[in-house]
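TICKET: design request
STATUS: open
ATTACHED STRUCTURE:
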């Protein structure tokens, strides 16, 4: 009987259909200068090679091996828009995960896409706090009792658990997802989500009764809620997480934000692997006989190209009046990057690569050839205002303007557009903007626009609630994606004030000037169907006098129409409509 139990663990999360390598930029210091190194990282072919390498090494070292996905495989790129999850299932099957947890984006469009995914995958999908007990008996496409789904057991009041042999013992994997799912996704009305902490606690108690103490929680809660889970629930051997796109590991010398890889709360290590298949998390874990983690060594690893573009940081180049750098500098910076302990090479699984290129890539090429506009400079998308971007995203206001322009054609009395930050996914990069860029990267959610008539006082409530949710300002937040951006109105928020008094002023632009809105007056607005449904703190929008779907116009279509006609306008940020004072 071994005294310690070794587990080699590979993990990814929030891959969002990024099957091909993604662009990444590092910042490195050399000889008191700062350099930028641009290259590509990750993608499923490189993941496939590194996962298989780790699997072989584990067998050689006589360690148990496990590969887990922390949820949100869906959405994100044209691959999902074109193939609606079929490519996700096919390519994940090739990577051979032991399990995946249900993410919120898997259920963006209700339960039907989840069922289609379950019918294709060759590994279990864990959703231990997903309660299907009230699912309609005559419903077409029921999820209940699907053999690949490990949902909530209402009789036992705990999660259905994946149990695997583990040396002379057994190891359990519990899948726990967001219990706020109805706030940020669109599960069917007969599908409910049980409290994550209570479910985990009850499930661990049941496992202990069976003599199982090695327990992995595969979580799609985000780092903050993972920390709370670890603090409040004893007996978790390790949490493998997702949802918050957290890059763990020591990457400050590459200019990237990070947190400690495997940080411990209540002696439970928590590991995350960033986003978009950019990195692979690899951990070597030693447990004792009682399932407690004795040691965890590992990191997140970028899998980068051999081709690396090195340039001097723009601010330093301007300050020093430098344009070019020497080959010796390029070689030194490149060597420094490649020597970093969090960097792996670009070795790839050829079968995975050929499958992507043969079966899926051709459908995307035509869309990439359709150029909509030329973007003269980078425009940054950041969800929340910050020191460098005090008014927040430079892209979201343009998206709002496109929604406004599209809706104004059929609703001349339209007053404003309102959109949440999470509905915009990436920045606009200088150069040609293609149809593929919009539909695949920037606005991948094909949501209808919804126009509505709402009283001014409820608009105050919606904006404050959404910001509170985005910033966790005195409430349990749903994430930074709920932060509101507007066109036609502007608002002032002071987070230092008491709840329900933080939106100090909303103004509408009318007759050539800004005027305060009337809390009793009715206004007509437009939002995506997601926001208009009251998700992520926007529940006050449900108090609208009426709502009307614009079935003929979706969010990405509105933006495509706008940039096709007015792309020359998208050069500088719009006048800021966000005036935000943080509570911190």
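STATUS: resolved
RESOLUTION: sequence designed for all positions
ATTACHED SEQUENCE:
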């Amino acid at each position: 009987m071994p005294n310690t139990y070794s587990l080699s663990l590979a993990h990814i999360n929030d891959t969002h259909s990024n099957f091909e390598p993604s662009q990444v930029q590092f910042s490195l210091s050399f000889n008191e200068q700062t350099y930028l190194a641009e290259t590509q990282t990750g993608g499923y072919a490189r993941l496939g090679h590194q996962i298989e390498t780790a699997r072989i090494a584990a067998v050689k070292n006589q360690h148990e091996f496990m590969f887990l996905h922390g949820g949100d495989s869906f959405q994100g790129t044209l691959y999902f828009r074109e193939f609606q999850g079929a490519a996700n299932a096919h390519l994940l099957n090739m990577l051979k995960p032991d399990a995946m947890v249900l993410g919120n984006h898997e259920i963006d469009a209700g339960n039907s896409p989840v069922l289609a995914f379950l019918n294709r995958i060759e590994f279990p999908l864990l959703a231990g706090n997903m309660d299907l007990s009230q699912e309609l008996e005559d419903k077409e496409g029921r999820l209940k009792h699907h053999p690949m789904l490990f949902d909530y057991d209402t009789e036992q009041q705990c999660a259905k658990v994946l149990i695997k042999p583990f040396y002379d013992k057994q190891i359990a994997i519990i899948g726990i997802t967001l219990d706020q799912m109805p706030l940020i996704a669109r599960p069917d009305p007969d599908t409910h989500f049980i409290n994550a902490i209570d479910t985990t606690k009850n499930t661990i108690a049941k496992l202990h009764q069976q003599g199982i103490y090695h327990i992995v929680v595969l979580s799609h809660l985000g780092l903050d809620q993972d920390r709370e889970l670890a603090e409040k629930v004893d007996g978790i051997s390790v949490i493998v997480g997702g949802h918050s796109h957290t890059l763990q590991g020591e990457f400050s010398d590459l200019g990237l934000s990070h947190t400690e890889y495997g940080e411990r709360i209540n002696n439970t290590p928590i590991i995350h692997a960033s986003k978009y298949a950019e990195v692979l998390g690899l951990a070597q874990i030693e447990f004792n006989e009682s399932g407690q983690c004795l040691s965890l060594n590992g990191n997140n690893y970028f899998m980068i190209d051999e081709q690396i573009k090195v340039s001097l940081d723009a601010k330093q180049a301007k300050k020093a009046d430098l344009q070019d750098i020497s080959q010796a500098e390029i070689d030194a910076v490149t060597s420094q990057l490649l020597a970093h302990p969090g960097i792996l090479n670009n070795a790839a699984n050829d079968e995975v690569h050929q499958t992507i290129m043969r079966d899926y890539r051709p459908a995307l090429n035509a869309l990439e050839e359709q150029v909509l506009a030329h973007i003269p400079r980078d425009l940054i998308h950041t969800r929340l205002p910050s020191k460098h971007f005090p008014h927040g995203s430079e892209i979201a206001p343009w998206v709002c303007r496109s929604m406004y322009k599209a809706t104004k054609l059929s609703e001349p009395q339209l007053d404003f557009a309102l959109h949440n930050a999470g509905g915009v996914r990436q920045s606009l990069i200088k150069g040609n903007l293609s149809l593929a860029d919009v539909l695949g990267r920037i606005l991948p959610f094909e949501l209808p626009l919804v126009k509505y008539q709402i009283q001014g006082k409820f608009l105050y409530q919606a904006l404050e609630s959404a910001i509170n949710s985005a910033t966790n300002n005195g409430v349990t937040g749903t994430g930074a994606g709920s932060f509101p951006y507007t066109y036609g109105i502007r608002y002032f928020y002071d987070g230092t004030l008491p709840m329900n008094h933080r939106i100090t002023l909303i103004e509408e632009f009318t007759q050539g000037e800004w005027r305060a809105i009337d809390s009793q007056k009715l206004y007509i607005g437009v939002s995506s169907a997601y926001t208009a449904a009251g998700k992520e703190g926007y529940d006050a929008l449900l108090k609208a006098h009426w709502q009307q779907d614009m079935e003929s116009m979706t969010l990405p279509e509105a933006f495509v129409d706008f940039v096709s006609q007015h792309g020359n306008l998208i050069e500088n940020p719009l006048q800021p409509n966000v005036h935000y004072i943080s509570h911190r």
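CLOSING REMARK: The chain has a mean pLDDT of 93. DSSP finds 15 helices and 32 strands in the chain.
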